[in-house]
């Protein structure tokens, strides 16, 4: 009996210690897993519209320069070497996207569309020279929205075409998922619409701040960055699920290992799995 009591006491201690260790894990919890915050870069002014080139693990994003809301630049930050570079050759580089199949980086500026040459480390104008680009995304062709008209176009083989599904709809930020659903925003809210249709489904009405950026994770799930954090979106039913809370969030992306990256008003942060938690 004494041996049994001793065994139970030892078991209780082990369980208690295990519970304590689990309780001491600090970080951000997402879907039951714990992640630690890795500071990638700081002291920036509103890092915005994040995207990652999976072939090089380079993170591209824009940020305001000279404390001017109308003046911005595109940055390239390698997630492995931690090297930061400002891309030259773009007038007010603001939006960026990557064709992951060809590893081609595209940038939208205040006077057109650019392609980034990784060898010369400069951007080259490829089209829309008189158009102020607001947001861009690559899927089969290059899609872009404009400012201040907020019209959605496609760019292919040097030709600009108005996107027919949303030709009568204002489009601010947007993204297209693996099932060809386009998620887009305007002043009235966040919508989902199947490509090839005119049927838009309202996800969220904007009472204050709207979506500041979109991203796809490795499974093709759409994530949206609001001011108060990052949300995942369901394309089979209307729903938003908050993934992580952020104070004044500005952008979201995923690296080649599907780690979530987000930015706030001054920093770019990556969430990495915490070991032994």
Tell me about this structure:
- The protein has one domain: Neuraminidase (6 Propeller), CATH 2.120.10.30.
- The model is unreliable at 1-22 (pLDDT under 50).
- It contains one helix and 25 strands.
- A hairpin with a 4-residue loop joins strand 9 (112-117) and strand 10.
- The strands form six sheets. Strands 1-2-25-24-23 form a five-stranded antiparallel beta sheet, with no helix packed on it.
- It is mainly beta and 277 residues long.
- It starts with a helix and ends with a strand.
- It is globular and about 55 Å long.
- The protein has one helix at residues 2-23, and strands at 28-30, 33-41, 48-53, 58-64, 72-78, 84-86, 95-99, 104-109, 112-117, 122-127, 133-139, 141-146, 152-156, 159-162, 174-176, 181-186, 189-194, 200-205, 213-216, 222-226, 229-233, 240-245, 251-254, 260-263, 268-273.
- This is Ommochrome-binding protein-like.
Q: If classified by CATH, what would the architecture be?
A: 6 Propeller
DSSP strand count: 25
* Helical proportion, percent range: under 10%
Give the CATH H-level superfamily: TolB, C-terminal domain
Give the total of domains. 1
Which CATH top level class fits? Answer: Mainly Beta
Following the backbone from N to C, one meets helices and strands in this order, namely HEEEEEEEEEEEEEEEEEEEEEEEEE
* First-to-last CA distance: 36 Å
Sheet with the most strands: spatial strand order = 1-2-25-24-23
Task: Profile the largest sheet.
Answer: 5 strands, antiparallel
Average pLDDT, to the nearest integer? 89
Q: What is the C-alpha radius of gyration, as a whole number of Å?
A: 22 Å
Compute the number of helices: 1
Strand portion: over 45%
Signal peptide: 1-18
InterPro entries: WD40/YVTN_repeat-like_dom_sf
Protein name: Ommochrome-binding protein-like
Keywords: Signal
């Amino acid at each position: 009996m004494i041996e049994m009591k001793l065994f139970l006491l030892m078991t209780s201690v082990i369980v208690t210690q295990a519970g304590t260790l689990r309780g001491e894990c600090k970080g951000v919890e997402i879907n039951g897993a714990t992640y630690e915050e890795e500071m990638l870069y700081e002291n920036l002014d509103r890092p915005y519209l994040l995207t990652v080139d999976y072939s090089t693990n380079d993170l591209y994003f824009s940020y305001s320069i000279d404390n001017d809301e109308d003046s911005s630049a595109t940055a390239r930050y390698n997630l492995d070497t931690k090297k930061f570079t400002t891309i030259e050759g773009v007038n007010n580089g603001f939006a960026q996207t990557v064709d992951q199949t060809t590893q081609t980086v595209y940038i939208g500026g205040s006077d057109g569309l650019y392609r980034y040459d990784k060898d010369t480390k400069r951007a080259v104008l490829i089209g829309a020279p008189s158009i102020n680009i607001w947001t861009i995304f690559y899927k089969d062709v290059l899609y872009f929205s404009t400012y201040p008209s907020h019209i959605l176009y496609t760019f292919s083989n040097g030709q600009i075409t108005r996107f027919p599904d949303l030709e009568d709809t204002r489009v601010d930020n947007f993204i297209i998922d693996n099932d060809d659903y386009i998620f887009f925003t305007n002043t009235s809210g966040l919508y989902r619409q199947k490509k090839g249709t005119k049927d838009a489904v309202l996800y969220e009405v904007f009472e204050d701040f709207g979506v500041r950026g979109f991203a796809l994770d490795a499974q093709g799930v759409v994530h949206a960055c609001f001011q108060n954090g990052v949300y995942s979106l369901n394309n089979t039913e209307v729903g938003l699920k908050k993934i992580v809370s952020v104070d004044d969030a500005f952008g979201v992306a995923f690296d080649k290992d599907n780690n979530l990256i987000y930015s706030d008003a001054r920093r770019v942060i990556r969430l990495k799995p915490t070991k032994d938690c």
